[in-house]
Every structure is written in C-alpha cells, then in structure tokens.
C-alpha cells in the first residue's frame, strides 16, 4: 500500500511539474511573477520610468517617420509592451516603435496610399496585424531559423543605407522645407538640395539646436555630472532625459514666441487625448496582397533586431532566450498594436540597453513603462501641441546615426571581399531602388556568393605528420606520404554545385600520378552528400576502377554514413573500403614505408 501511494505521489508530482513547465514556456510571465523578489522592485520601477522618458518623444518621432500622426506612436507603446511582458522570454527587451520598422512601414504603405491620410493609418493597422500573424505562425511552426538568410553583411548594408534614408527623410523638417516623396531614395537627396534656398532659419535653428543638445547628452553630459560629484545612478538617469528636455524646451519656446504663426515653424498640432478604442482593422483582399512583401520583411527584420538584442543582453546575466517564443511574443504584441490604433513594433536597441543598464530585473519594467505612456496619453497630450516637428526630426536623426556602421564595413572588407560585395550590393540597391528590393538583392547576392564559394571547395592532399596519427596538407607541413596512395581531404559538404569539382579532383589525381593505385577520400568536413553528389561519387568509383585505381573513404560522419547505408551505397561500395580514420586506411594499404 505504501509503495503504491508513493508511486502515485511521484506520478502526480511529475505531472504537476510538466504542467508547470508548459505554463512557463507558453507564458514566461508565470516564471518571474511566481518567484518575484522584493529587492527587484526598485530596479524595475526605475528602469520603467527611464525608458518611458525616452519612449514618449521617440514614439512620436518614429510615428511621424512612418508617415503617421504622432499619437499612433504613443498608442503602439502601451498594449504591445504589456503583451510582450506576458509572452516574451527576455526580461529586459524594450518593445515599441523603432526607426527601422517605421521606415519599412512608410516604404510599404507609401506605395499604395498617401502618408498622413486616414487610408494610410488604416493600412498601418492592417500591416501590424499581418506582421503579428506572420510572426505568430512562424513561432508556432518553429521557423525562427529563416532569419538566418539575412546574413550579417546584408544587415550591415541594409541598416547603413536605411540610416541614410531615414536621416535624409527628416531633413525637410530640420530645414523647414517642402520635399515631395520620391520613388527612389537617392532622389530624396537631390530634392532636399534643390529646396535648400527655401530654408526656414527658425526651423533650422530649432533642429540644429536640438541635435546639439541631444549629442551633448549622449556623449558628454554623464561625464560632466560625474565630474561634479553626482552618483553614477543619478548621472546615468539624467543623461537619458535629453530627448524629453529638448521636447519640453522647444515646445515652451514655440508656444511663448508663437513661432508657428509668426515665423512659419511647423508644429505637431493637436494630439487626441485619451486611450485608443479597441478596433479590428477592416481587411480587404487587395490590400492584404499588396502588403504581404513588406509584412514579411518587417517580420524578419524586426525579429532579427529583437533576437540579437535579447540574446546579447541575456548572456550578460546567464539567462536563456527562446527564439520561437520571441516570435510568438512579438507576433502577439503586433496584433495588440493593430487593435489599439498602433503600427508594427519590435525590440529597440537603445531602449533595451537603457532598460538593462537602469536595473530592469523582470518584464515588470515594461509594464511600468506602458502604464506611464498610458497616463501621458490620458493627461498630457495637450502639452505637445506646440512641439516643433524639427525637434522630433532631430530625435530621429540622432537615434539612427549609430546605424551607419562604417566600422563593420571596414572589418568585413578586410576579412572577406565576397561578404563585402553582398554588403555593398545591399547598400546600393536600397539607395537606388527601395528597401524591399535592396533586401532582396542582398539576400540573393549572399546566396549566389555562397553557392560560388561552396562550388569550389578547398581540397588538400595530406600526409602523416611524423610518427603520429595526424594528417596535414602536404603544401603547408613536412609530412610523410605513401608511394602508391594519395589521401585527399575535401573541406566542404558534397552537393549539386560542387559535384563536378569532386569528380575533377579525383580524376586529376590519377592523371597527374601514373603510379597511383589507391585514393583515400577523407570526409571529415563532409556534413551531407546530396543525390547529385552521390551519383557523381558512384560514377567516379567505376571510372577509377576502370583506370586500375581503388577508392577508399575515411572519417565519414555518422549521419552521412546512415544515409549511405540506407540507399545501399555501402553494400555496393564495400564496408571494407570505408575506414574510421585515415591512419587505419594507411595501415590497411601498407603505407608504413612512407616517403
């Protein structure tokens, strides 16, 4: 009786544990809420406050970058943050509007609707919903690996070009000029230059002054505060308030001197007060089809930006990030944005780093930020009426300046010219055409260059190092070789693009050495052999035997051997002709008398 009861208790405990683990996996919030520590509260509250101070002006600026009214950015900074706190596996990722996704939104919707119109806003809701659904489906299907097709060089080229496009799109506000929207980004630079004689000096003063203050806060203010004896925590907090300061000061100046009516300074105008109503976007088939390409790009680019930030910050605290859960969390956040008057969101680099540095311990900091943004929308939006557009443009320009990554370009150019070619192709295509085409060109270039590299794999003839069982390239090391045997190592998986190279390598070895009787093909770097390569290998075996040369395999990996066995190649080729190591092959061939 006792044993039965104990067994039943263990089964119940095990079942309870599995349910608990499943609950934490689907709703990561249950993990930190159930174990929340009182000492974590101060850090979460402070981080939430500091991020809110950053996010209020940033969200309005990014919304205008996306061609949307400023309040849309605020709306996108409330419910999505709470939803991510429930589903996200990162405890410090700060979700909300970001420059890159804002630019993608403008690029995608701007092709079918005029920025600032009611139709444009409605399409932004649809785009957020589509992005959310795509990310949710990708997360459920565990397709997070698809983001690997956006290589680092392609992303560097894309983000650097996007930084220029974003910055140039804000110059019209800095100079106070009217610049027509262009189909190709490079035309924007030309249009800005042509309209410079119409510069509004007041707008230029406000914009340039805002940029100066923001740069000072970003690079010098904290250092100066520390020099004056302020504590590190206070100095760090105050240094993050640069954007809020320029918003408040420029708004007060514009209101006090009536810069809008007397000097033609463009201001934000009325921002509706109150929380947005819950609405579901009105869907039309034609609109959905038109938005599919940009929704896919935002889904991938947004996820790439978020996962890279989340993984980097989590590693500093030895925490774990689940990429597929992140897709689900971001997808749910975007669906939340679509039903609350927002637009697509993702994790932001600068805000996440600030959230981390300010002491965020759990996603409660995101909830605190969302509550503070909601209070701002409810109580303080009338204060932003006289906010100059030049100030918001300055915030965007300073925020995206770091995206232009010349250092990475130099590094990639020095290391790999082919990777640099993919970077340059992406960069130029974004500027010459548009973002969607630019990313497509970058991905295609990277894949073509990969195929080219792998179609010409590195092949080495190897020999034994001294009396050891190690074999190295005869061109790089002093090694011993066998008179009538040649050991060839191919450093690439074998597939359709390099099958001809494999065949030529084997046949050339025979043609170059009339005394050759045996070839050992070392497969230590071969991770798979596709059907085309298998056909070539079988044909090469017959051709070599006709020439009086035996082919042997060595160091074949387990998964590759399993497939060769399953297809019947091993039985036909002969198990006795496949060796665990090159050393065993040399012993079998009697290569003790090596030269």
Number of strands: 8
Quote the distance from N terminus to C terminus: 76 Å
Overall pLDDT metric: 88
Cα radius of gyration in angstroms: 31 Å
- Main beta-sheet strand count, sense and barrel state: 6 strands, mixed
Shape: elongated
**Low-pLDDT windows of residues:** none
Strand order of the largest sheet: 4-3-5-6-7-8
Estimated share of beta-strand residues: 5-15%
Total number of distinct structural domains: 3
Q: Count every helix, treating DSSP H or I runs of 4 or more residues as helices.
A: 26
Structural class, judged by helices and strands?
mainly alpha
The level of helicity is 55-70%
Index terms:
mainly alpha, Transcription Regulator spoIIAA, 6-stranded mixed β-sheet, two-stranded antiparallel sheet, 26 helices, 8 strands, 64% helix, 5% strand, elongated
Quick rundown:
The protein is mainly alpha-helical. The chain is built from 26 helices and 8 strands. The chain folds into 3 domains: about 1-30; about 35-405, no CATH class; about 460-590, Transcription Regulator spoIIAA, CATH 3.30.750.24.
Structure, explained:
- The protein has 595 residues and is mainly α.
- The chain has three domains: 1-32; 36-405, no CATH class; 459-588, STAS domain (Transcription Regulator spoIIAA, 2-Layer Sandwich), CATH 3.30.750.
- The chain is built from 26 helices and eight strands.
- The strands form two sheets. A six-stranded mixed sheet has the order 4-3-5-6-7-8. Strands 1-2 form a two-stranded antiparallel sheet.
- β5 (485-490), α22 (499-512) and β6 form a beta-alpha-beta unit.
- The longest helix is centred in the middle third of the chain and has 32 residues, at 285-316.
- The N and C termini lie far apart (76 Å).
- The model has no long low-confidence stretch (mean pLDDT 88).
């Amino acid at each position: 009786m006792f044993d039965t009861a104990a067994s039943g208790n263990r089964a119940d405990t095990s079942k309870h544990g599995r349910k608990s683990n499943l609950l934490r996996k689907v709703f990561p919030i249950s993990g930190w809420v159930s174990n929340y520590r009182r000492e974590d509260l101060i850090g979460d509250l402070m981080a939430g406050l500091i991020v809110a101070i950053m996010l209020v002006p940033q969200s309005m600026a990014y919304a205008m970058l996306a061609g949307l009214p400023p309040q849309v950015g605020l709306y996108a900074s409330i419910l999505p943050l709470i939803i991510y706190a429930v589903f996200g596996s990162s405890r410090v990722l700060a979700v909300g509007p970001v420059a890159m996704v804002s630019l993608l939104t403008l690029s995608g919707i701007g092709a079918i609707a005029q920025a600032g119109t009611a139709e444009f806003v409605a399409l932004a809701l649809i785009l957020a919903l589509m992005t959310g659904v795509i990310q949710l489906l990708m997360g459920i299907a565990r397709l997070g690996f698809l983001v690997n097709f956006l290589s680092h060089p392609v992303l560097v080229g894309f983000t650097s070009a996007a930084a220029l496009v974003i910055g140039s799109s804000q110059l019209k506000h800095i100079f106070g000029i009217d610049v027509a929207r262009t189909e190709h980004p490079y035309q924007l630079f030309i249009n800005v230059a042509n309209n410079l004689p119409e510069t509004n000096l007041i707008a230029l003063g406000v914009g340039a002054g805002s940029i100066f203050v923001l740069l000072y806060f970003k690079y010098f203010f904290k250092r100066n505060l520390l020099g004056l004896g302020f504590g590190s925590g206070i100095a760090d907090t105050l240094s993050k308030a640069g954007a809020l300061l320029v918003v408040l000061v420029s708004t007060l100046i514009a209101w006090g001197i009536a810069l809008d009516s007397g000097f033609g300074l463009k201001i934000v105008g009325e921002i509706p007060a109150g929380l947005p109503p819950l609405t579901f976007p009105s869907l039309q088939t034609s609109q959905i089809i038109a938005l599919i390409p940009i929704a896919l790009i935002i889904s991938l680019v947004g996820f790439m930006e978020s996962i890279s930030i989340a993984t980097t910050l989590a590693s500093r605290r030895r925490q774990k990030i689940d990429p597929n859960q992140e897709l689900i969390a971001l997808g749910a956040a975007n669906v939340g944005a679509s039903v609350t008057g927002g637009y697509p969101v993702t994790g932001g680099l600068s805000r996440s780093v600030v959230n981390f540095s300010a002491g965020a311990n759990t996603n409660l900091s995101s909830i605190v930020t969302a509550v503070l943004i909601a209070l701002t929308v409810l109580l303080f939006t009338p204060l932003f009426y006289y906010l100059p557009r030049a100030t918001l443009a300055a915030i965007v320009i300073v925020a995206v300046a770091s995206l232009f990554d010349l250092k990475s370009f130099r590094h990639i150019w020095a290391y790999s010219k082919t990777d640099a070619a993919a970077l340059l192709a992406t960069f130029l295509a974004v500027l010459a055409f548009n973002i969607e085409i630019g990313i497509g060109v970058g991905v295609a270039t990277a894949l073509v260059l990969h195929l080219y590299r792998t179609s010409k794999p590195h092949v080495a003839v190897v020999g034994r190092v001294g009396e050891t069982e190690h074999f190295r390239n005869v061109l790089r090391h002093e090694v011993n070789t066998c008179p009538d045997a040649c050991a060839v190592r191919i450093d690439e998986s074998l597939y359709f693009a390099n099958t001809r190279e494999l065949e030529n390598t084997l046949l050339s070895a025979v043609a170059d050495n009339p005394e050759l009787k045996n070839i050992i093909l070392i497969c230590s770097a071969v991770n798979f052999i596709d059907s085309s390569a298998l056909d070539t290998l079988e044909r090469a075996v017959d051709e070599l035997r006709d020439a009086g040369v035996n082919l042997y395999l060595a160091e074949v990996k387990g998964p590759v051997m399993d497939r060769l066995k399953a297809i019947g190649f091993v039985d036909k080729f002969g198990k006795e002709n496949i060796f665990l190591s090159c050393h065993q092959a040399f012993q079998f061939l009697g290569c003790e008398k090596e030269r």
